Fold this protein.
Amino acid sequence: MIKAWRLAWLPFVLAAGPAHAHSPIPGIKGFYTGLLHPFSTPSQVLLTIGLGLLAGGFATETERYRLVVFPISGIVGLVVAPDIAELDAAMFAAAFAACALAALVPGRLHVLAVVLVAAGGFLIGVASIPDDGPVRDRLFTMSGSIVGASIGLLYLAGISLAIRERYTWPWVGIAFRVLSAWLGAISLLMFSLGLAAGET
Amino acid sequence: MPNRATLTLMAIALAYFSATFPALAHTGEGYGGGFVAGFTHPILGWDHVAAMVAVGLWGAFLGAPAIWILPVVFPLVMAFGAVAGIIGIPVPAIETGIALSAVVLGLMIVFALKPPIWMSAVIVGAFAIFHGYAHGTELPATVNPFAYAVGFVISTGLLHLAGIAFGLLIRWPAGRVAVRGAGGLIAFAGIAFLSGVA
């Protein structure tokens, strides 16, 4: 009986509608928008997941601290703001590289992995540049984007690490490699579709 | 007389169903339609099914690490084949290559051949090009390409897993016979595809 009542919250959660709450801090809405921005397009989602799977193979504490290159390169991307004509294609290519590395040689080629994490952060930073508007609003949005992308990457890498450490069966590592291969294949397909669309 | 736990669960279920929103069904376009089109593309083509399952079966015969390396290599190389198809790089004899993949992989299983792992990966990868090319060129113009790509990669992977799951029977003598028999069926189907009978 007690166990059954534990599910009583379920319909309320599933039936939840929009909250319509307002933000108490002026401009903070842009921050929230920025938080979700890194998960708003397939290219950014695939890149973030690919980097998360790659970073999940970082075995030691020292290696994990090197994830700090991600937000730093993201900020560099926001500040430098280069005009990359095929930004989505570049992100898909980076996602493919990250996924292929995670699938074929997980936990190895550490320098290359850190370079890919930095490149991914840079590209997401470039993709997070908001449209023209008041400087304060843009700063809020850009801050939210970098925070959102970094949290996303940390959670993905952390979940991956936690699963590997909690469940030490050989097939767990293999499952991550197969997942990485699948995501790499999808990224490569999207990369080519982007290029094909650009040619026509 | 149902007990209180059952009544409670029924009450919760009733509350849940009472709170549902409209489904807003679509016409098969967009993300949903794209996923379904991509997911069903490898499954509805028997030549694809035979070869994908064969990859898993053969991996089971080869044992670790090949049993897992082949399903990792296949989708990555298959994507390169799809790229060639999408951007229009000509690859000859696609259908022949797909049919041959069933014949060759089926025979590998029948004779329980165990070449070195790199050679197995090269064989599987070479055939993956043909399968990927077919998927890439047959991508419907009306569906969402991202959802299509997600669908057909997952579908291909699940066919591999089905083959691996069946291939695990080789640890028993009768299962070994069954798996080798399945390899024979796949090779036979491949010959039928090659000759145009199927």
Remarks:
- Residues 29-195 of chain B form one domain.
- Chain B has one domain: 29-195.
- Chain B has a mean pLDDT of 83.
